[in-house]
Amino acid sequence: MGLSQNELWVRYFGLGGMAMPIEVEAFLLGLLAPSAHDHEVLVHALNERFSELGRNHPVPHGDGHGPTTLPPWGAQPPDEP
Amino acid sequence: MHLGSAPGCDARVSGPGKLPEAATLGQALGYRGADELVDAALLFVVLLAEATIELADGASVSLVVNDRLATVAASNDLVRAMDADQYRLGEGPCVSAAASGTLVRTDSIATETRWPAFVAAASAHGISSVISTPIAVLDRPVGALNLCSRTAWAFDAPQARLAALLASHAAAMLTARDSEERSVAAISRTIQSVLIGRHSIALAQGILVARDGVTADEAHRRLRGLSRATNTGLTRTAEEIVRTAEPEPPDGPGAR
Q1: Which of A78, B47, B54, B235 is deepest in the core (most CB within 10 A)?
Q2: Nearest residue of B to residue A52, measured between CA atoms
């Protein structure tokens, strides 16, 4: 989708994300579970990219809209600590 | 009294307009750029040219700076004066080489007919022959490496080849500087837009926290929901919330 991991982090950061690039990399590899908040901000960043590409929001979000199939970084949206 | 949105008033008074220009961000962080290094290297090139080209009595690099030719490195005042004459008169080998991107040579000022005004000025300085080798950055001529001599017929093919070699090194340094400046400017712009985005989102979160009595994370969640529902970017959504929450800017000139 024409977005490097660094570019994704820049977008995530621009939307208010607070995790470091290395943490985001770990989320993407499934090595670290993001907080629900980080998870959603990342999903939002990805979906905004898809919108730019003329596609609808293909990455499901979990904001109280029931369980979803998640992107690679986790099996479940973890609860807030 | 105008009650709608005041024309001419910047609606986004809350921050973005107050942020510094992109380039100053790098400067504030202590970034000095490659300018000084390139200037020193260009001076090295002209000193090397004068030292290695036997009959050369002066060498300089002229560059187009702000749409005008200027001498950025000179081995002595003789060549500096010759350059200045050409910029002032708008003619001469350096002006021609920088404009055309081709090598321009005059072997004998005494019989030169292409630039009468420059010939008079150069003769007054005792200059008898001149060679100007174009300097090109990304295939675009941006200046010239100039050599002058008090001897007529001082520059032949071997000297021209050496001058071209040195000019190509000057061009390589200038190309590197240009591309670095471009990438620094692009990075500064990205940093600026990202910070503006975060700023708007944080402001909008604050507005929702105060207005609805929710946590910051919940405010962010609401912003995202609104962004999705309206298919508007999160940053734009936040800017809208900030804008509508702000008091109407006062009318009249200078109201910002």
Answers
A1: B235
A2: B233
